[in-house]
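User: Sequence recovery, please. Input:
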């Protein structure tokens, strides 16, 4: 029986583990922090809610109105009501990643994947990267902060471990350019949160970002306020964040910062995303829309498509797929979302 380890328990890893476990393939999914709150705007397109059968309980706010705010603070109101007509079924979902990720990860576990609260520290890729793959990891399930050192040998690896992917390093996947996102979670008084009931804001201008945009996205009891910029401007990020706060200060003045977050965002796919019997998905692969920074949907989609290819090529786990089999996933992924990844076919159902 085929043995697969999925490294990373975000949307891409969880979706991959779910498909594999459903088919009866022996699957492990590794996540270091089960309460992890990944730094992220947390905006998901409606197509993801439907396609991945996500419950409304993970959606904090249903945004139907967006304000685009110019450098001179002129506002342009964009309403989904004007695009699709008034409907409760058209919205952009705002969620907390710790809530959404936990749901998707636990669903994979309930379907049969073995969830490991652990950190993979080294990967032996075998002869010519073909495996079998021996993982060394620290298991934190006992509550020991140092973790218990353990090993696991598998036939196939899926790297869903983000921009700093250990799997990508093990397979020499190559580097990619990244943008830097900085975000504060700010708790607002009830009257200010009511303003953001179904509204999000996006700010443009060199004071908030020379090459990206700033945002105010509403969550359950707070707003996520952030900005992004190319890595070359990383030293400016805190000043740019201050620019967003200044532009939105009318609503934020009485707010309390409850969390500060920062993370890299890939600008393009890695040079190699399949080597031997190792495959990358999500941010580890570089599947993010450059024009908007949106990556949650593509993470989930790539994880699912990779796993579906493994299930088909392995005849439900009876055989070990080849490198050629895994590369079919890349072809199908490219055919499915090539234009979206290049930012040439944007629509409000996919992007903000």
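Assistant: Recovered sequence (352 residues):
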């Amino acid at each position: 029986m085929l043995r697969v380890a999925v490294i990373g328990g975000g949307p891409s890893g969880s979706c991959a583990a779910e498909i594999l476990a459903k088919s009866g393939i022996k699957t492990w999914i590794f996540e270091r922090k089960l309460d992890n709150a990944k730094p992220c705007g947390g905006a998901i397109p409606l197509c993801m809610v439907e396609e991945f059968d996500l419950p409304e309980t993970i959606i904090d706010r249903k945004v139907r109105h967006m304000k685009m705010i110019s450098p001179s603070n002129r506002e342009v109101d964009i309403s989904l009501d004007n695009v699709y007509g008034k409907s409760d079924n058209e919205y952009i979902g705002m969620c907390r990643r710790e809530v959404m990720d936990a749901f998707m990860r636990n669903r994979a576990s309930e379907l049969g994947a073995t969830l490991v609260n652990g950190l993979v520290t080294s990967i032996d890729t075998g002869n010519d990267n073909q495996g079998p793959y021996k993982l060394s990891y620290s298991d934190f399930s006992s509550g020991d902060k140092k973790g218990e050192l353990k090993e696991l040998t598998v036939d196939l690896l899926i790297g869903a471990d983000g921009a700093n992917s250990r799997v990508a390093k093990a397979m020499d996947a190559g580097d990619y350019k990244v943008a830097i996102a900085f975000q504060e979670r700010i708790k607002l008084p009830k009257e200010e949160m009511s303003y953001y009931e179904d509204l999000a804001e996006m700010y443009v201008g060199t004071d908030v970002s020379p090459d990206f945009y700033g945002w105010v996205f509403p969550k359950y009891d707070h707003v996520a306020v952030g900005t992004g910029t190319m890595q070359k401007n990383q030293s400016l990020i805190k000043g740019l964040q201050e620019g967003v706060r200044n532009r939105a200060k009318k609503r934020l003045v009485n707010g309390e910062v409850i969390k500060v977050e920062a993370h890299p965002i890939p600008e393009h796919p890695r040079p190699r995303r399949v080597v031997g019997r190792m495959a990358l998905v999500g941010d580890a692969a570089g599947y993010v829309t450059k024009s908007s920074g949106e990556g949650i949907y593509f993470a989930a989609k790539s994880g699912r498509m990779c796993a579906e290819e493994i299930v088909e090529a392995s005849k439900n786990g009876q055989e070990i797929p080849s490198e050629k089999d895994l590369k079919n996933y890349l072809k199908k992924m490219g055919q499915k979302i090539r234009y979206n990844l290049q930012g040439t076919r944007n629509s409000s159902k996919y992007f903000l």
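The radius of gyration is 20 Å.
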